[in-house]
Amino acid sequence: MPEPDEALIKVEAIAPNRGETFLLERPGPRLLPGKDIAGLVVQAATDGSGPGIGTRVVGHPAQGGWAEYAAVPTHSLAALPDSIDSVRAAALPLAGITALRLLRTAGFPAGRRMLLTGASGGVGHYVTELAVGAGAELTAVTATPVRGERLAELGATVVHEVAAAQGPFDVVLESTGGPDLPVALSKVRPGGTLVWFGQASRTPATLDFFQLLGGPERVTIQHFHYAGAPYGSDLAALVRLVEQRRLHPEIGRVTDWARTADTLVDLRERRIRGKAVLLTGGAR
Fold first, then answer.
1. Cβ neighbours, 10 Å, residue 110
2. pLDDT tens, position by position, 42-81
3. Distance between CA atoms of residues 84 and 199, nearest Å
4. Closest CA to 171 of 214, 109, 120, 213
5. Cα distance between residue 165 and residue 143, in whole Å
6. For a pLDDT cut of 90, what percent of the chain falls above it?
7. DSSP structural state of residue 68
8. H-only helix segments in 13-74
9. Taking 70 as the threshold, does the pLDDT of residue 283 lie above it?
10. With 0-12 CB in 10 A as exposed, 13-18 as middle and 19+ as buried, what is 138?
11. What is the pTM of this model?
12. Within 10 A of 23 (CB to CB), how many other CB atoms are there?
C-alpha cells in the first residue's frame, strides 16, 4: 500500500545497476532491489502531491523497483515528454543523478583539466558528455579500447591506465579505489582536488604519507556519495537535457525481464557497455 506521498507506478522499464548485483551476494530479509524505473502513474499520491493518473514518469525509489508495480515518493519522480521513451528514461536515474551531483561537487567544468577513472559505465558516459559539453578538457580511463570508443566520440581523451594520463589535472574524479587511487592522486595539480566517488575494484586503497610529500602539495581529497532525496529536480534536469539532445543515454542491452538473471551476471562481469534495460511489458 503506497504511503500518502507516494504514487503507484505501473513499471514499464527497469535499469539494474552493477552495484545492485553486489547486494545479491548476501541478501537481507528486507532486500527489495530496484532504483531505476520508468512507467505510468496508475494511482496518484493521496496527499495531492506529484503527477496525476496517466502521467508517464521516470522514478528513483529507494528500493522495490524490480516489480510490475512500484510505490515511489513523488519527490523522486519526474514527468516524461512524449519524445522520450521508457527505455531511455529508465537508464537515467542513478547514473545520471550521480553525474550531475558529482560535477556540482567538482565545480564549474569550463576550461578545467579533468581526469575520470573507471569511465566505462553509465556514470562515466554521463560525466563525459556533460563535462565536455560544458567546456572541460577531460581524460577518461577505460579498461579497453572498445569501452573508450564512445567517450572519444564525445570529445574525451581516452587512456587505458591511470598512469598513462597526462597531468596535472585540476580535478580528478576517482571511482576505482585500490592501487589506482594513489596514482590518480599523483596526477592532481598543487591545490587541486580529488573527488573519490567509488571503489569499483572492490579493493581498499592505501596512501603513503611520505610518498605524498613528493607529489602535489595541498591536494584536497573529498569523499562523495550521490544519495540523498529528493531526486525529482535532478530527474527533471536530466529529462530536459535528453529532450534538448544534450545528453544521450548509452544503452548496451534492451531485453525482456525474463532475462533478468543473465543480464545481472553480464552487468557484474562488465560484458555490457553502457546501461542494460529490462522491459516488463507495455513500454513506450
1. 10
2. 999 999 999 999 999 999 999 999 999 999 999 999 999 9
3. 32
4. 109
5. 13
6. 79
7. S
8. 18-23
9. no
10. buried
11. 0.93
12. 13
